[in-house]
Amino acid sequence: xxxxxxxxxxxxxxxxxxxxxxxxxxxxxxxxxxxxxxxxxxxxxxxxxxxxxxxxxxxxxxxxxxxxxxxxxxxxxxxxxxxxxxxxxxxxxxxxxxxxxxxxxxxxxxxxxxxxxxxxxxxxxxxxxxxxxxxxxxxxxxxxxxxxxxxxxxxxxxxxxxxxxxxxxxxxxxxxxxxxxxxxxxxxxxxxxxxxxxxxxxxxxxxxxxxxxxxxxxxxxxxxxxxxxxxxxxxxxxxxxxxxxxxxxxxxxxxxxxxxxxxxxxxxxxxxxxxxxxxxxxxxxxxxxxxxxxxxxxxxxxxxxxxxxxxxxxxxxxxxxxxxxxxxxxxxxxxxxxxxxxxxxxxxxxxxxxxxxxxxxxxxxxxxxxxxxxxxxxxxxxxxxxxxxxxxx
Length: 393
Hints:
This protein is of the alpha/beta class. The chain has helices spanning 3-17, 29-38, 42-51, 58-91, 101-104, 128-137, 176-180, 199-215, 221-234, 240-249, 253-267, 280-292, 303-308, 315-327, 331-334, 348-358, 363-375, 378-390; strands at 96-98, 119-123, 141-145, 149-154, 157-162, 187-189, 194-197. The protein is globular and about 65 Å long. Helices cover 55% and strands 8% of the residues.
């Protein structure tokens, strides 16, 4: 690993544990800040540089202060706006569950440094029309209106409102959509209409959400920092035997062991659950995979690799199959967003036409993905396939 990879992990771990970091050796500060930027943790790096003398360059120290204070200012404002939105939903008697970054920020030493681009809310399906009318009345514009997830924006506010929290299956090993369809059974009230997930269920969702992102393009270091912060804040109160049993049910126990072993290695935060040893080479490969491509795995990594890493055929056959599935996906692939397919699979040709009409504005993006599939580097595809097997997905 590069010196910048190692030192970023060290800084993040020191921040969580509220310890002074060690001095940097042979670190390219521009490269470190670029790495922090693609992982959306520049505010934390800035905070550590502001609080501790990790860089002797006065210009660098000034940049740290700016990154820290700028992040706190921006995300304090976004959080205040989100609190107003939560109160608006409360006043409108719309039940909602808050999750992910909005809740996890309270596990961080400085909550304002936990950045987010969107706020995720879960509502009951029967409140969908009422919630939509409310958002429009508040001046929000619709960004996406897929059936399980609806997103709205107004200025720099961005909300994803879910009627389901898992709209795809991470793999064919388990029924992930079915398992998380029962999310309201694990919601506990914080007020008359605002809810939070039980800590154990939220933890399971966090791990499955990471797996979903890896199934797609990738998951950056901030998602694992969330796991570490959550463990540090909640670990002693969790029912680990129940969590272990549910991980087995979700076929994610091996993956969870890799994630938790990596979190302990990267940030120095362990968990009480017994973990079988994970080979150092696997953790090294997992670290490279996580850090090289940014917060959602898109940085310098094209979409073809994300799709091809799950194919079992040889590379030429994988290319042909993916191109065909891009144009004509299977019913089970798209039925979460075209729900009329769930009990009427014979309407699949109608869904293909519906999908084409609905996504025609993204034709250039689809063509670029097709080009990437045709030209994908075979060695990189093989590397990704090996990694997915090694980490239990």
